[in-house]
Amino acid sequence: MELMMRNMFQSLGKSRAANRLAKKYGLRFGAARFVAGETIQQSIDAVRGLNQDGRVATLDHLGEFVFSVEEALESAAMCIQTLDAIAESGVRSNLSLKMTSLGLDINRELCVSSMKRILDRARMHGNFVRIDMEDYAHCQVSLDIYRELRQEYDNVGIVIQAYLYRTMQDIGDLHAYGANLRLVKGAYKESPEVAFPEKSAVDENYKAIIQKHLMNGHYTAIASHDEAIIQFTKAFVREQGISNDQFEFQMLYGICEELQKQLVREGYRVRIYVPYGVDWFGYFMRRLAERPANVWFVLKNMFK
């Protein structure tokens, strides 16, 4: 039953028709728990609240359904506006983005050009930009563009997914670039030809890449709500004498808030991924697919 629900929500997340319907009706049925709002100001207000109790953030203007050059340029402009709003408000937040929202599927050079404009603005503000990893079809091109950008920019990082077989090799290849990586388990539905089908194998690979990237000496963001992974990381950095300045824990807006606050009290840097925007549907569906408890939360809201 759980697998059936996960597959259903993952399929819905890729539906253009469902996305259009979601935009029409807005953040209803519980989506507002996971999405900070539809406007920049709402997202800034959410980050300010996080900052007040010691959490930092990374803002993401959601956008996965981009079908024209005009939409891609508009998405890039929103990223730049977000960086300006962060600087103007003084909140402590980076920027995260998906390169498909910048037109990666339309024109690679358009995407790279927009990335450079965004990174220039971030550099002007002394800020940092994280490239989100998407499905397997976009993995290689995303890493290729990241390597290209690292020739010119030191304020850009990328995400690596533990459920892919290729990930350990990617970690090794990125060592030469001094990569600042966010390490995640992975939230897309992938073929067993490219990804570990069993959760236990994903967990073991996740631990291995955390160890490898930390021991390579590079900044590591461990993005997980799994307390076993968090405890594993705490024990590993203690054993190896790794400074808290070399890593941070990352979690999603609206999930495990008490755990987030506890980690802050323990002296760890905790960064919250804060999504906003009208194109929230695909992101919301992946959150429902990840945890059945999220589905029951939504159902309760539907019947209120």
UniProtKB/TrEMBL annotation:
Top-tier EC class: oxidoreductase
Keyword Methyltransferase: no
Domain of life, source organism: Bacteria
Pathway info: Amino-acid degradation; L-proline degradation into L-glutamate; L-glutamate from L-proline: step 1/2
Reaction(s) catalysed (UniProt annotation): L-proline + a quinone = (S)-1-pyrroline-5-carboxylate + a quinol + H(+)
EC number, UniProt record: 1.5.5.2
Short name of one Pfam family: Pro_dh
Molecular function as annotated in GO: nucleotide binding; proline dehydrogenase activity
GO biological process: L-proline catabolic process to L-glutamate
Annotated Proline dehydrogenase domain residues: 46-298
Cofactor: FAD
Keywords for the protein's UniProt record, in alphabetical order: FAD, Flavoprotein, Nucleotide-binding, Oxidoreductase, Proline metabolism
Keyword Flavoprotein: yes
Manner of cofactor binding, per the entry note: Binds 1 FAD per subunit.
Binding site for substrate: 98, 286-287
InterPro entries referenced in this protein's UniProt entry, alphabetically: FAD-linked_oxidoreductase-like, PRODH_bac_arc, Proline_DH_dom, Proline_oxidase
SUPFAM superfamilies to which the protein is assigned, alphabetical: FAD-linked oxidoreductase
Residues the record lists as binding FAD: 133, 161, 185-187, 199, 224-225
Protein name: proline dehydrogenase
Species, as recorded: Paenibacillus pectinilyticus
Upper lineage: Bacteria, Bacillati, Bacillota, Bacilli, Bacillales
